[in-house]
Amino acid sequence: MKSASLQYANALADIALAQGAAAPAEQQLGDFVASYSASAELRNVFSSPSVSKEEKRAVAEKIAARLGASKIVRNFLFVVIDHQRTHLFQEIFENFQTVLRDRQGVAEAEVFSAVTLSDAQKKELTRTLEQATGKKIEAKFSLDASLLGGALVRVGDTIYDGSLRNQLNGLRERLTAEQT
């Protein structure tokens, strides 16, 4: 199912970016998905085969109007309803966010450090990551007590391990190799 939700996310990203409405579309779809996720009754309406597509569209229209959703988002919701993919709303939204960030050259980074980093250290680390990845980095910083020192950074599927433990392990490997 991941590929289906990704196809929908890519299609919405194509339209939203072409019309310069990526940020509003992301916000509006997010608001709709939050309403959908919070209401068991709403999920039941969209998943029930006894509720017609027209009735589902009418419900989506009312919610979209209340949320102030654009025509792009409303039409997108109708396409998802018409293709009976409403159970993928959350997954589509998550993929949409990822696709938008990727197309806009933005990457999320998770930074784990042994101690709290100063604002200057955070800025320097973010700048270094931007140079290494060629993307604008949105970093989230966390403490990890298991690290002896340094930092561990995850950007997408790539891990940059600058932890003291990793450096000590590398030193141990070099010393072991020299002894043999």
What spatial form do the alpha-carbon principal axes imply? elongated
Strand content: 15-25%
The helix-strand sequence is HHHHHHEHEEEH
Main sheet: strand order: 2-1-3-4
Round the Cα radius of gyration to an integer and report it.
Answer: 22 Å
SS field, number of helical segments:
8
Which spans of ≥5 residues are poorly predicted at pLDDT below 50? Answer: none
The CA-CA distance between the termini, in Å, is: 51 Å
Helix content range: 55-70%
Q: Summarize model confidence as the mean pLDDT.
A: 91
Number of strands: 4
Summing up helix and strand content along with how strands pair, one would put the structural category as alpha+beta
How would a textbook summarize the main sheet? 4 strands, mixed
Notable traits:
180 residues, alpha+beta, four-stranded mixed sheet, 4 strands, 64% helix, 16% strand
Describe the structure.
- The chain is of the alpha+beta class and 180 residues long.
- The model has no long low-confidence stretch (mean pLDDT 91).
- It has helices at 2-18, 22-38, 40-47, 53-67, 71-82, 89-103, 119-133, 164-179, and strands at residues 106-113, 136-143, 150-155, 158-163.
- A four-stranded mixed sheet has the order 2-1-3-4.
- α1 crosses α6 and α4 (53-67) packs antiparallel against α5 (71-82).
- A hairpin with a 2-residue loop joins β3 (150-155) and β4.
- It is elongated and about 75 Å long.
- It has eight helices and four strands.
